[in-house]
Amino acid sequence: MLKVQPPKATFNPIGGVSNHTVTNSGKTRLVFKIKSSNNNDYGIHPVFGFIEPSSSTVVKVTRLPGNPKEDKMIIQWVEAPGTVKDPKEAFQLASPWLVQSMKVIMEVYAVSLRI
Fold first, then answer.
1. How far apart, in whole angstroms, are the C-alpha atoms of residue 108 and residue 63?
2. Which helix H or strand E contains 79, and what residues bound it?
3. What pLDDT shows up at residue 108?
4. Per DSSP, what are the bridge partners of residue 83?
5. Cα(85)–Cα(22) distance, rounded to whole angstroms?
6. How far apart are CA 6 and CA 101, in angstroms?
7. Are 10 and 61 in contact (CB under 8 A)?
8. Minimal CB count within 10 Å: which of 25, 36, 71, 98?
9. Coiled coil where (predicted)?
10. C-alpha neighbours within 13 Å on the C-beta side of residue 19
11. Which domains does the chain have, with CATH numbers?
12. Spatial separation of the C-alpha atoms in residues 49 and 29, rounded to whole Å
């Protein structure tokens, strides 16, 4: 099972960075892939990766400056084949029927300026 902390990313209109810890609480090695509903305003690193059992990795989400709106990031994962070294290849080899996913909301909020 995969868990993401924090489960939501919040940015102001000037942009910024949000780090998310992705944890594999299971007993098998997992491979993950991350998709975004808005690739123009967000950069996500890494997009593909492995997470060993009872381990974590950090995913960095960078938001460019822009108007307030809500987007989403989808994290997909599946048990990783043992011999494959490239996470993108491992994900592509996985059966689509076994892929699980979760949504992380990425929200940009308006900042009121007091003069």
1. 9
2. strand 70-79
3. 80
4. none
5. 20
6. 16
7. no
8. 98
9. none
10. 4
11. 2-107 (2.60.40.10)
12. 11
For the chain, give percent helix, strand, coil, nearest 5: 10, 55, 35
Rg over alpha carbons for the chain, rounded to the nearest Å, is: 16
What does the longest C-alpha to C-alpha distance in the chain come to? 60
C-beta separation of 60 from 44 below 8 A: yes
How many CB atoms sit inside 10 A of residue 55's CB? 13
Per residue in 15-73, pLDDT tens? 999 999 999 999 999 999 999 999 999 999 999 999 999 999 999 999 999 888 889 99
Residue whose tokens read 């080899």: 93
Query: Can you tell me the distance from the alpha carbon of 79 to that of 20, in angstroms, rounded to the nearest whole number?
Result: 21
pLDDT, residue 112, reads 54
Q: Which two tokens stand for residue 31?
A: 């491979």
Integer CA distances (angstroms), 57 to 22, 40, 46, 70, in order: 5, 24, 9, 25
Closest CA to 58 of 108, 6, 103, 107: 6
Question: In angstroms, what CA-CA distances link 89 with 15, 48, 51, 55, 82?
Answer: 32, 9, 15, 21, 12
